[in-house]
């Protein structure tokens, strides 16, 4: 095992997360604070599904919105929890460092970057 390689990769990951968060905060501040995916037709799938931290659970969420907190310093997400035969709208998930790449992918796919 090459410990140095893991340390370098982890340091890169931390730098990337910081850059992604800065870019998303900046973009959201210039476009009204929210980016929403609106399906063009009923069968359209949401661009990103991820596991987010709820108050009492860890649901898989089809992200529908990424937006700024009231103070403009945090990223939040809304979406749909979908399990077999079950679909529920869920709101206000905080986007932690471990979810930044999913939020970034959602924004890029939604606004066609």
Description:
The chain has helices spanning 3-30, 100-110, and strands spanning 34-36, 49-51, 60-68, 75-83, 86-94. The chain has 113 residues and is an alpha+beta fold. It has one domain (3-110). Strands 1, 2, 3, 4 and 5 form a 5-stranded antiparallel beta sheet that branches. Strand 2 (49-51) and strand 3 form a beta hairpin. Helix 1 (3-30) crosses helix 2 (100-110). The protein is globular and about 50 Å long.
Secondary structure: elements and pairs:
Elements: H1 3-30, E1 34-36, E2 49-51, E3 60-68, E4 75-83, E5 86-94, H2 100-110
Antiparallel strand pairs: 1-3, 2-3, 3-4, 4-5
Helix pairs in contact: 1-2
Short characterization:
It contains 2 helices and 5 strands; from the N terminus they run H-E-E-E-E-E-H.
Q: What features would you highlight for this structure?
A:
single chain; 113 residues; globular
Query: Globular, elongated, flat, extended or rod-shaped: what is the shape?
Result: globular
Question: What is the string of SSEs from the N terminus onward?
Answer: HEEEEEH
Number of domains: 1
**Over all CA atoms, what is the radius of gyration?**
15 Å
Largest sheet: 5 strands, antiparallel
N-end to C-end Cα span: 37 Å
Give the fraction of residues assigned to helices: 25-40%
Count of helix runs: 2
Overall mean confidence score, pLDDT: 92
Residue windows where pLDDT falls under 50 for at least 5 positions: none
- Which structural class do you get from the secondary structure elements? alpha+beta
- The tally of beta strands, per DSSP, is 5
How large is the share of residues in beta strands? 25-35%
């Amino acid at each position: 095992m090459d410990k140095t390689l893991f340390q370098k990769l982890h340091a890169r990951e931390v730098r990337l997360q910081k850059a992604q968060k800065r870019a998303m905060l900046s973009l959201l501040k210039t476009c009204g604070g929210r980016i929403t995916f609106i399906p063009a037709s009923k069968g359209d799938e949401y661009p990103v599904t991820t596991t987010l931290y709820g108050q009492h659970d860890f649901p898989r969420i089809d992200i529908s919105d990424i937006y700024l907190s009231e103070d403009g310093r945090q990223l939040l997400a809304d979406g749909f929890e979908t399990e077999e035969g079950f679909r529920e709208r869920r709101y206000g998930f905080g986007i932690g460092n471990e979810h930044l790449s999913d939020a970034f992918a959602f924004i890029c796919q939604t606004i066609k970057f």
